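Sample log: Glycosyltransferase family 9 protein.
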Amino acid sequence: MKVLLIRRENIGDLILTTPLISMLAKEHQVDVLVNTYNMPVLDGNPHVTNVYHYTKSHHETSLKAKIGAVAHRLKTTLDIWRTGYDVALIAGNWNKRALTWARLSRAKRVISIGEDAPAVITDRIPYIQEKMHLVEELVQLARPLGCELRPGKLELYVTPAEIEQAAEKISTQNKLPLYGLQISSRKPNQRWPVEYFIELAHRLSQREPCRIMLFWSPGSSDNPMHPGDDEKAAVIAQSCSDIDLIPYKTSNIRELMAGMALCDQIVTSDGGALHIAAGVGKPVVALFGNSDGYHWGPWQVPSRVLEATDNHVNSLSTDQVYGSFIDLRNEVLSQEVTG
């Protein structure tokens, strides 16, 4: 069958959908509708036949860009309608905008989560009441198609050329352990303080000879469209000039994927970068403020999940994060020795 999978949300949501895509692709053709923001995570994915995309209007600032986005959305709409699908699958809970795309697909069956969904959704998966990781929740959508497989790992495909470019930027001739610190988060309650990252970097460097890659969301904090952490990264880099810390500025998701692929272990708060780290198979120490670790935690990679008791990562001390990092590092090294 031809399946159109609709995933309109953020980068992390799409990455966490890749195990479902892989499961469906074992029996069916899978095409995916995404937006231009999250689309790069599907580059090179062998389980996706066609990728349709559109631009969210609030991501464009100029009138010319907005007109171009509308024109491309019309083309995407026509392409989906012309193709026609056996099944449209809304990844996650149903919503009106995703449902509009499902209708355009002319699918005979529409699958989504939500028993309160309108009748056009033919297969309604009940809302999940038990504690469950999002990956496990999403694969429930494959059950109406007879797929009972267990979900595998997250799947991101970084090319050798991309990794080589990233390696050239940091000069990887040095064989010291390479640790990643990712400082950005979209949610304020998930932002660990700059001074904590500075202290953590110094403690890791004092413990053993190592190199540290600093990752962050590019851009100024006062950018109304895409606020970034250039200022925070500059403070950390200046305060860590006495250790081997490499500010790794990225301009797109693919560069972040390639940079993280070089690391031996990563610290990051919950968000898209966390799932990129897990998607390239890296051990992760994940910091959670006002989101649930059981639902959004690292999927099928060695990890430590630290959850703040007051819903803000500020309450996680450097002692806690450092201790979890070293504990995880020792576990990974032990597993490598035992094979």
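Observation: Residues 63-83 form the longest helix (21 residues).
Observation: The mean pLDDT is 93.
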